[in-house]
Amino acid sequence: MLMLVNRVLAHPLDDAVVEARLEPGRARLSLLLAYPLIASYDEDGDRLLSSLEVEKHRAELTSLLGQHLGLSAGAELEVQADEQAVALKTHTRLLATALWPQPLNVFQLDYSLWPPRADGPKCFLVVQSSGRSVSAVLSQEHPKFRLPLTWRGRLQQRGTPIVLTLGSVAALALLVLGRKSPRGALGGAFLLAAGAAYWLVRP
Q1: Which of 48, 90, 115, 119 is the most exposed place for a label (fewest CB within 10 A)?
Q2: Which one, of 160, 24, 20, lies nearest residue 105 by Cα?
């Protein structure tokens, strides 16, 4: 995380860092945002958002993040101040928790929280889930991130129509082979099942 923050601070008014820790039915978000995006909510001008400022502007901050993070459908956001944050000249930290009524199959984020007139801004994203960490760099040209979390999510992410087409072709081939060589068809079916299982469970 520190390395990503250093990269952001090299581009004072443009870039951002989003860290998402995924748990069943929720995502804990830590955001490092360009200060101009939240300056109007920083009433005392200390470049930090206090608990009082977050509470006073909760509706606006929730709307801002809800519109520009593009989280998986159905997310309810709870915005919090980062009491451990240190004042920075160009960026400000903010915490949020996204809640869903049930565990997600696919975590998605479509980032569009860019400063006005930004020049080639980037969002450095780190997602932690089930003991693994996935990183991505999002931009205005490529703002979308998807991470399958279950086998249903992997099936959805990797293209159900293609899978069904290939599966149908393979099944037809095994049917034809089975008439000539039942043993060969059985071996082929085993390999097909093993391949499908690996395809579904691989990260």
Answers
A1: 119
A2: 24
Residues 80, 54: contact at Cβ < 8 Å?
yes
Cα–Cα dist 79/77, whole Å: 6
Residues 6+ apart with CB under 8 A from 130: 22, 149
**What are 26's two structure tokens?**
């929720």
pTM of the full structure = 0.73
The strand pair at 26-34 and 16-23 is best described as: antiparallel
Q: What residues pair up with 135 in beta bridges, in sequence order?
A: 126
Side-chain-side CA neighbours of residue 83 (13 Å): 2
Give me 123's structure tokens.
């969002």
56-80 residue pLDDT tens: 999 999 999 999 999 998 899 999 9
